[in-house]
Amino acid sequence: ALDTFKLKEPVLDSFCGVGTTLLACKKRGMESIGTDVSPLAVLASKVKTRNYGLKEIENEFQKFQALKPQPIERIPIDPRIRKLFYHEALGTIWFYKTQIEQIENDKVRDFFWLALIDTTGRCANVVKVGGSLRKQKKPDMPVAKLFLGKIKKMMLDIRQAQFNLKKTDSNSDKKNNFNSNSPNEPSVLEMDCRQLDLEDES
Questions:
Q1: Does residue 2 have a pLDDT over 50?
Q2: Which pLDDT value is given to residue 130?
Q3: pLDDT score at 169
Q4: How would you list the strands of the sheet with 11-13, edge to edge?
Q5: Who wins on pLDDT, 108 or 128?
């Protein structure tokens, strides 16, 4: 749509979801703004479109690889949610949650949060049916393996984006410039788009 309708920046995606349009703008070096009422969507959009120092993520990842999740006798969570998980799996998720909360860098912490959220959804004894969730027993999943594997996949995506950036011809047109690590990070806001204060005819 960006190329088809020849949109000019800044681009506003008022229902940004997981940030697909924002990322497309970023690849083209275009300024963009996204809003969504879903905290999860906003988190996913931010993580997908941020600039990262990969070394800092790798260092944090090595710390997590060395961790051995400790069993938790009583997990302080709503019993209705507790029933959706195997006890050991939920304990491991909770262990990683407490570790992520200790990460000082906001960008790195959000990066790990998204990986844990994805892992939690895969380990829960629920399936998505339309717009709702239905309880359904699944095999007991290896939380640590899934969580660390998800982080590896996300780091690989960053490396690939940075590799593509290096291959980009510096003389190429702006619209063709894959620049996923450019300084123009999109602004992503958790809000109802009806509350935006827009200029007339914008």
A1: yes
A2: 87
A3: 43
A4: 11-13, 32-36, 187-190
A5: 108
CB atoms within 10 A of CB 125: 17
Bridge partner residues of 132 (DSSP): 129
Closest CA to 122 of 108, 138, 111, 109: 138
Helix axes 20-27, 39-49, angle to 10 degrees: 20
Q: Kindly tell me the burial class for residue 184, based on how many C-beta atoms sit within 10 Å of its own C-beta (0-12, 13-18, 19 or more).
A: middle
Residue whose C-alpha is closest to residue 168's, from 160, 183, 179: 179
- Residue type present at position 25: C
Q: How far apart are CA 131 and CA 134, in angstroms?
A: 10
Q: How far is Cα 105 from Cα 20, in angstroms, rounded to an integer?
A: 24
Residue 201 has a pLDDT of: 60
Give the global pTM.
0.85
- The answer to whether residue 101 scores a pLDDT higher than 80 is yes
Contact 112, 60 (CB under 8 A): yes
H or E element that contains 114: helix 106-123
Within 10 angstroms of residue 96's Cβ, the number of other Cβ atoms is 23
Give the 3-state secondary structure percentages of the chain, helix then strand then coil, rounded to 5.
Answer: 50, 10, 40
